[in-house]
Description:
Strand content: 5-15%
Strand order of the largest sheet: 3-2-1-4-5-6
Mean pLDDT: 94
Low-confidence stretches: none
Number of helices: 17
Helix content: 40-55%
Radius of gyration: 23 Å
Oligomer: single chain
Distance between the termini: 52 Å
Number of strands: 6
Order of helices and strands: EHEHEHEHHEHEHHHHHHHHHHH
Amino acid sequence: MKIGLFGGAFNPPHREHINIVKELIEERKYDRLVLILSNNPPHKSSVNTPFDTRLELLKLAFSNISGVEISDIEGRDNEKHFSYDIIRYFKGVYEGDELEFIIGGDSMIDFHKWLKPEEIIKLVRIVVVPRGGDMEEVLSAKEYYDGFGADIVVSNYRANAISSSVLRCRIALGDDMSDILEKNCWEFVKRERLYRDYDAVLERLERELKPERFEHTKGVARYAMKLNENLRLDYDRVMLSSLLHDCAKGNVKYSYPIREDAIGTNVEHSFMGRQVAMREYGVRDSEVLDAIEYHCTARPKMSPLEKLIYSADMLEEGREFEGVERLRDMIESDFETGFCECLKATYRHVKDVGFSMYPLTAEAYGYYICGGNN
Protein backbone atom coordinates (compact mmCIF):
# COMPACT_ATOMS: atom_id res chain seq x y z
CA MET A 1 0.00 0.00 0.00
CA LYS A 2 0.98 3.62 -0.49
CA ILE A 3 0.42 5.62 2.69
CA GLY A 4 0.72 9.33 3.45
CA LEU A 5 1.51 10.58 6.95
CA PHE A 6 0.30 14.09 7.75
CA GLY A 7 0.87 15.47 11.24
CA GLY A 8 -0.26 18.66 12.90
CA ALA A 9 -1.93 20.31 15.87
CA PHE A 10 -5.13 20.87 13.84
CA ASN A 11 -6.12 23.57 16.31
CA PRO A 12 -8.73 23.72 14.85
CA PRO A 13 -8.92 21.67 11.63
CA HIS A 14 -10.25 23.84 8.82
CA ARG A 15 -11.39 23.59 5.21
CA GLU A 16 -7.88 24.06 3.80
CA HIS A 17 -6.69 21.03 5.75
CA ILE A 18 -9.48 19.09 4.06
CA ASN A 19 -8.55 20.50 0.64
CA ILE A 20 -4.91 19.48 1.12
CA VAL A 21 -5.88 15.95 2.11
CA LYS A 22 -8.28 15.52 -0.81
CA GLU A 23 -5.76 16.85 -3.32
CA LEU A 24 -2.92 14.70 -2.02
CA ILE A 25 -4.98 11.50 -2.00
CA GLU A 26 -5.71 12.14 -5.66
CA GLU A 27 -2.29 13.45 -6.69
CA ARG A 28 -0.15 10.92 -4.79
CA LYS A 29 -2.59 8.00 -5.25
CA TYR A 30 -2.62 7.12 -1.57
CA ASP A 31 -4.41 4.01 -0.44
CA ARG A 32 -4.54 5.58 3.01
CA LEU A 33 -3.70 8.98 4.45
CA VAL A 34 -3.02 8.99 8.19
CA LEU A 35 -3.62 12.21 10.12
CA ILE A 36 -1.35 12.27 13.18
CA LEU A 37 -2.68 14.63 15.82
CA SER A 38 0.19 16.21 17.74
CA ASN A 39 -0.03 16.42 21.51
CA ASN A 40 3.12 18.00 22.92
CA PRO A 41 5.09 19.33 19.95
CA PRO A 42 8.69 20.31 20.78
CA HIS A 43 8.59 23.48 18.65
CA LYS A 44 5.63 24.99 20.55
CA SER A 45 5.48 26.05 24.18
CA SER A 46 2.01 24.60 24.57
CA VAL A 47 -1.19 23.70 22.78
CA ASN A 48 -3.93 24.90 25.09
CA THR A 49 -6.82 23.04 23.49
CA PRO A 50 -7.03 19.54 25.02
CA PHE A 51 -5.94 16.65 22.84
CA ASP A 52 -9.30 14.87 23.14
CA THR A 53 -11.15 18.01 22.05
CA ARG A 54 -8.97 18.42 18.97
CA LEU A 55 -9.34 14.72 18.25
CA GLU A 56 -13.13 15.09 18.25
CA LEU A 57 -12.87 18.11 15.93
CA LEU A 58 -10.60 16.17 13.59
CA LYS A 59 -13.05 13.27 13.43
CA LEU A 60 -15.89 15.68 12.65
CA ALA A 61 -13.90 17.48 9.95
CA PHE A 62 -12.91 14.30 8.11
CA SER A 63 -15.96 12.14 8.78
CA ASN A 64 -16.99 12.18 5.11
CA ILE A 65 -13.54 11.81 3.52
CA SER A 66 -12.78 8.26 2.44
CA GLY A 67 -9.26 6.89 2.75
CA VAL A 68 -8.45 8.93 5.85
CA GLU A 69 -7.34 7.41 9.14
CA ILE A 70 -6.87 9.45 12.33
CA SER A 71 -4.11 8.42 14.71
CA ASP A 72 -4.14 9.23 18.42
CA ILE A 73 -0.64 7.79 19.02
CA GLU A 74 0.69 11.07 20.45
CA GLY A 75 -2.16 11.36 22.94
CA ARG A 76 -1.17 8.21 24.79
CA ASP A 77 1.39 10.05 26.92
CA ASN A 78 2.50 13.60 27.67
CA GLU A 79 6.04 13.33 26.32
CA LYS A 80 7.63 15.47 23.64
CA HIS A 81 7.04 13.89 20.25
CA PHE A 82 9.55 14.35 17.47
CA SER A 83 8.82 13.61 13.81
CA TYR A 84 11.86 11.32 13.65
CA ASP A 85 10.37 9.02 16.32
CA ILE A 86 6.85 9.17 14.88
CA ILE A 87 8.11 8.20 11.41
CA ARG A 88 10.06 5.28 12.87
CA TYR A 89 6.93 4.14 14.70
CA PHE A 90 4.83 4.11 11.52
CA LYS A 91 7.63 2.44 9.56
CA GLY A 92 7.16 -0.42 12.00
CA VAL A 93 3.37 -0.39 11.79
CA TYR A 94 3.37 -0.34 7.98
CA GLU A 95 6.45 -2.47 7.40
CA GLY A 96 6.87 -3.18 3.72
CA ASP A 97 4.46 -0.43 2.61
CA GLU A 98 5.44 2.75 0.75
CA LEU A 99 5.33 5.70 3.16
CA GLU A 100 5.44 9.42 2.43
CA PHE A 101 5.69 12.12 5.08
CA ILE A 102 3.69 15.27 4.27
CA ILE A 103 4.85 18.69 5.48
CA GLY A 104 4.01 22.30 4.71
CA GLY A 105 6.29 24.71 2.92
CA ASP A 106 7.16 26.49 6.17
CA SER A 107 8.27 23.18 7.68
CA MET A 108 10.50 22.50 4.69
CA ILE A 109 12.10 25.90 5.12
CA ASP A 110 12.68 25.20 8.83
CA PHE A 111 13.61 21.55 8.30
CA HIS A 112 17.17 22.18 9.47
CA LYS A 113 15.77 23.02 12.92
CA TRP A 114 14.14 19.60 13.31
CA LEU A 115 15.60 16.75 15.30
CA LYS A 116 17.78 14.55 13.06
CA PRO A 117 16.72 15.87 9.65
CA GLU A 118 19.59 13.94 8.06
CA GLU A 119 18.13 10.73 9.49
CA ILE A 120 14.53 11.55 8.52
CA ILE A 121 15.46 11.83 4.85
CA LYS A 122 16.89 8.31 5.02
CA LEU A 123 13.67 6.92 6.44
CA VAL A 124 10.96 8.31 4.19
CA ARG A 125 10.08 10.30 1.08
CA ILE A 126 8.96 13.83 1.96
CA VAL A 127 6.06 15.50 0.17
CA VAL A 128 5.98 19.28 0.54
CA VAL A 129 2.78 21.31 0.17
CA PRO A 130 3.95 24.89 -0.43
CA ARG A 131 2.09 28.14 -0.15
CA GLY A 132 2.26 30.51 -3.08
CA GLY A 133 4.63 32.96 -1.45
CA ASP A 134 7.23 30.54 -0.09
CA MET A 135 8.09 28.56 -3.24
CA GLU A 136 11.55 30.06 -3.72
CA GLU A 137 12.63 29.22 -0.17
CA VAL A 138 11.04 25.75 -0.41
CA LEU A 139 12.96 24.94 -3.59
CA SER A 140 16.18 26.23 -2.03
CA ALA A 141 15.72 23.97 1.00
CA LYS A 142 14.81 21.04 -1.25
CA GLU A 143 17.93 21.55 -3.35
CA TYR A 144 20.08 21.56 -0.20
CA TYR A 145 18.71 18.24 1.06
CA ASP A 146 18.69 16.74 -2.43
CA GLY A 147 22.46 17.04 -2.15
CA PHE A 148 22.35 14.62 0.78
CA GLY A 149 20.32 12.05 -1.14
CA ALA A 150 16.88 13.11 0.08
CA ASP A 151 13.78 12.07 -1.84
CA ILE A 152 11.67 15.24 -1.69
CA VAL A 153 8.62 15.87 -3.86
CA VAL A 154 6.93 19.26 -4.13
CA SER A 155 3.18 18.88 -4.53
CA ASN A 156 1.38 20.57 -7.40
CA TYR A 157 -1.17 21.89 -4.91
CA ARG A 158 -0.62 25.41 -3.60
CA ALA A 159 -2.14 25.73 -0.15
CA ASN A 160 -4.00 28.84 0.90
CA ALA A 161 -2.41 30.46 3.93
CA ILE A 162 -4.82 30.01 6.83
CA SER A 163 -3.21 30.66 10.18
CA SER A 164 -4.63 28.60 13.04
CA SER A 165 -3.70 31.33 15.53
CA VAL A 166 -5.53 33.96 13.47
CA LEU A 167 -8.50 31.60 13.26
CA ARG A 168 -8.53 31.08 17.03
CA CYS A 169 -8.20 34.82 17.57
CA ARG A 170 -11.18 35.54 15.35
CA ILE A 171 -13.29 32.91 17.11
CA ALA A 172 -12.30 34.49 20.43
CA LEU A 173 -13.50 37.86 19.11
CA GLY A 174 -16.89 36.42 18.16
CA ASP A 175 -16.36 36.43 14.39
CA ASP A 176 -18.34 34.04 12.20
CA MET A 177 -15.98 31.31 10.95
CA SER A 178 -18.53 29.16 9.15
CA ASP A 179 -16.75 29.83 5.84
CA ILE A 180 -13.47 28.44 7.21
CA LEU A 181 -14.63 25.54 9.38
CA GLU A 182 -16.73 22.60 8.26
CA LYS A 183 -20.35 22.88 9.45
CA ASN A 184 -20.06 20.09 12.04
CA CYS A 185 -16.83 21.57 13.41
CA TRP A 186 -18.22 25.08 13.59
CA GLU A 187 -21.33 23.89 15.40
CA PHE A 188 -19.15 21.97 17.86
CA VAL A 189 -16.91 25.00 18.45
CA LYS A 190 -19.92 27.21 19.14
CA ARG A 191 -21.71 24.67 21.31
CA GLU A 192 -18.66 23.95 23.46
CA ARG A 193 -17.55 27.62 23.40
CA LEU A 194 -14.08 26.63 22.30
CA TYR A 195 -11.37 29.28 21.95
CA ARG A 196 -13.41 31.75 24.01
CA ASP A 197 -10.80 32.30 26.72
CA TYR A 198 -11.12 36.08 26.55
CA ASP A 199 -14.89 36.42 26.88
CA ALA A 200 -14.68 38.06 30.33
CA VAL A 201 -12.13 40.61 29.12
CA LEU A 202 -14.11 41.38 25.98
CA GLU A 203 -17.40 41.73 27.84
CA ARG A 204 -15.86 44.22 30.25
CA LEU A 205 -14.19 46.19 27.47
CA GLU A 206 -17.45 46.36 25.55
CA ARG A 207 -19.13 47.85 28.61
CA GLU A 208 -16.40 50.38 29.31
CA LEU A 209 -15.26 51.53 25.86
CA LYS A 210 -17.13 53.50 23.23
CA PRO A 211 -18.39 51.25 20.41
CA GLU A 212 -15.88 52.57 17.86
CA ARG A 213 -13.02 52.11 20.35
CA PHE A 214 -14.13 48.56 21.07
CA GLU A 215 -14.20 47.74 17.35
CA HIS A 216 -10.73 49.27 16.98
CA THR A 217 -9.51 47.06 19.84
CA LYS A 218 -10.75 43.93 18.09
CA GLY A 219 -9.17 45.15 14.87
CA VAL A 220 -5.81 45.51 16.60
CA ALA A 221 -6.05 41.94 17.89
CA ARG A 222 -6.86 40.61 14.40
CA TYR A 223 -4.02 42.49 12.72
CA ALA A 224 -1.48 41.80 15.46
CA MET A 225 -2.20 38.09 15.15
CA LYS A 226 -1.85 38.29 11.38
CA LEU A 227 1.57 39.91 11.71
CA ASN A 228 2.48 37.38 14.36
CA GLU A 229 2.34 34.55 11.83
CA ASN A 230 5.99 35.31 11.07
CA LEU A 231 7.06 36.59 14.49
CA ARG A 232 5.63 33.56 16.31
CA LEU A 233 5.29 35.29 19.65
CA ASP A 234 3.22 33.76 22.42
CA TYR A 235 -0.46 33.71 21.42
CA ASP A 236 -1.81 34.76 24.82
CA ARG A 237 0.63 37.64 25.21
CA VAL A 238 -0.36 38.98 21.79
CA MET A 239 -4.06 38.62 22.58
CA LEU A 240 -3.87 40.23 26.03
CA SER A 241 -1.68 43.13 24.87
CA SER A 242 -3.94 43.79 21.90
CA LEU A 243 -7.18 43.68 23.85
CA LEU A 244 -5.97 45.86 26.72
CA HIS A 245 -3.83 48.39 24.85
CA ASP A 246 -6.64 51.00 24.93
CA CYS A 247 -8.39 49.82 28.10
CA ALA A 248 -8.00 53.27 29.70
CA LYS A 249 -8.77 55.42 26.66
CA GLY A 250 -11.75 57.70 27.28
CA ASN A 251 -12.39 55.87 30.53
CA VAL A 252 -12.50 58.60 33.18
CA LYS A 253 -13.49 56.18 35.96
CA TYR A 254 -9.85 55.16 36.36
CA SER A 255 -7.29 57.46 37.94
CA TYR A 256 -3.96 55.99 39.00
CA PRO A 257 -0.54 57.63 39.39
CA ILE A 258 1.35 57.89 36.11
CA ARG A 259 4.25 59.92 34.70
CA GLU A 260 3.58 63.59 35.27
CA ASP A 261 4.76 64.61 31.80
CA ALA A 262 2.07 62.37 30.25
CA ILE A 263 -0.88 63.85 32.15
CA GLY A 264 -3.18 65.79 29.84
CA THR A 265 -1.39 64.64 26.66
CA ASN A 266 -2.58 62.46 23.77
CA VAL A 267 -0.56 59.55 25.15
CA GLU A 268 -1.87 59.68 28.72
CA HIS A 269 -4.14 56.68 28.18
CA SER A 270 -1.23 54.38 27.33
CA PHE A 271 0.47 54.98 30.68
CA MET A 272 -2.85 54.75 32.48
CA GLY A 273 -3.54 51.58 30.51
CA ARG A 274 -0.63 49.84 32.17
CA GLN A 275 -2.04 50.66 35.58
CA VAL A 276 -5.56 49.60 34.64
CA ALA A 277 -4.35 46.33 33.10
CA MET A 278 -2.37 45.55 36.23
CA ARG A 279 -4.82 46.73 38.90
CA GLU A 280 -8.18 45.99 37.28
CA TYR A 281 -7.47 43.04 34.98
CA GLY A 282 -4.82 41.37 37.11
CA VAL A 283 -2.08 41.37 34.46
CA ARG A 284 1.35 40.67 35.96
CA ASP A 285 3.32 39.87 32.81
CA SER A 286 5.84 42.70 32.40
CA GLU A 287 6.13 42.12 28.63
CA VAL A 288 2.39 42.59 28.20
CA LEU A 289 2.36 45.65 30.45
CA ASP A 290 5.25 47.22 28.53
CA ALA A 291 3.48 46.61 25.21
CA ILE A 292 0.40 48.40 26.57
CA GLU A 293 2.36 51.30 28.07
CA TYR A 294 4.43 52.10 24.99
CA HIS A 295 1.95 51.38 22.22
CA CYS A 296 1.51 55.11 21.56
CA THR A 297 4.93 56.56 22.22
CA ALA A 298 7.35 53.80 21.28
CA ARG A 299 10.74 53.92 23.01
CA PRO A 300 14.32 52.78 22.42
CA LYS A 301 15.09 49.06 22.73
CA MET A 302 11.52 47.83 22.29
CA SER A 303 10.72 44.14 22.57
CA PRO A 304 9.19 42.37 19.53
CA LEU A 305 5.83 42.37 21.35
CA GLU A 306 6.00 46.15 21.93
CA LYS A 307 6.81 46.73 18.25
CA LEU A 308 3.95 44.45 17.24
CA ILE A 309 1.29 46.24 19.29
CA TYR A 310 2.63 49.68 18.32
CA SER A 311 2.40 48.75 14.62
CA ALA A 312 -0.93 46.90 14.81
CA ASP A 313 -2.52 49.84 16.62
CA MET A 314 -1.47 52.08 13.76
CA LEU A 315 -2.28 49.74 10.85
CA GLU A 316 -5.33 47.65 11.83
CA GLU A 317 -7.87 47.33 9.04
CA GLY A 318 -10.14 50.03 10.42
CA ARG A 319 -7.46 52.70 10.03
CA GLU A 320 -7.76 54.97 7.02
CA PHE A 321 -5.08 57.53 6.25
CA GLU A 322 -2.89 58.38 3.31
CA GLY A 323 -0.13 55.82 2.96
CA VAL A 324 -1.65 53.16 5.24
CA GLU A 325 -1.76 50.52 2.49
CA ARG A 326 1.90 51.10 1.69
CA LEU A 327 2.81 50.66 5.35
CA ARG A 328 0.76 47.46 5.58
CA ASP A 329 2.49 46.07 2.49
CA MET A 330 5.87 46.90 3.96
CA ILE A 331 5.34 45.42 7.41
CA GLU A 332 3.74 42.26 6.02
CA SER A 333 6.78 41.82 3.79
CA ASP A 334 9.46 42.75 6.35
CA PHE A 335 8.37 43.40 9.91
CA GLU A 336 11.39 45.37 11.12
CA THR A 337 11.45 47.62 8.07
CA GLY A 338 7.70 48.16 8.33
CA PHE A 339 7.94 48.99 12.03
CA CYS A 340 10.59 51.64 11.32
CA GLU A 341 8.41 53.11 8.57
CA CYS A 342 5.51 53.30 11.03
CA LEU A 343 7.74 55.16 13.48
CA LYS A 344 8.84 57.55 10.73
CA ALA A 345 5.23 58.17 9.73
CA THR A 346 4.23 58.94 13.32
CA TYR A 347 7.16 61.30 13.77
CA ARG A 348 6.36 63.16 10.54
CA HIS A 349 2.67 63.41 11.43
CA VAL A 350 3.37 64.92 14.85
CA LYS A 351 5.74 67.41 13.26
CA ASP A 352 3.33 68.29 10.44
CA VAL A 353 0.31 68.95 12.65
CA GLY A 354 2.33 70.85 15.20
CA PHE A 355 1.67 68.58 18.17
CA SER A 356 4.12 68.49 21.03
CA MET A 357 6.49 65.54 20.52
CA TYR A 358 6.49 63.23 23.53
CA PRO A 359 10.12 62.68 24.64
CA LEU A 360 10.02 58.90 24.33
CA THR A 361 8.88 59.16 20.71
CA ALA A 362 11.79 61.45 19.88
CA GLU A 363 14.15 59.06 21.64
CA ALA A 364 12.72 56.09 19.74
CA TYR A 365 13.12 57.94 16.45
CA GLY A 366 16.70 58.76 17.28
CA TYR A 367 17.44 55.18 18.28
CA TYR A 368 15.78 53.32 15.40
CA ILE A 369 15.92 55.81 12.55
CA CYS A 370 18.88 58.06 13.15
CA GLY A 371 20.89 55.39 14.95
CA GLY A 372 19.76 52.58 12.67
CA ASN A 373 19.13 50.14 15.51
CA ASN A 374 16.43 47.59 14.72
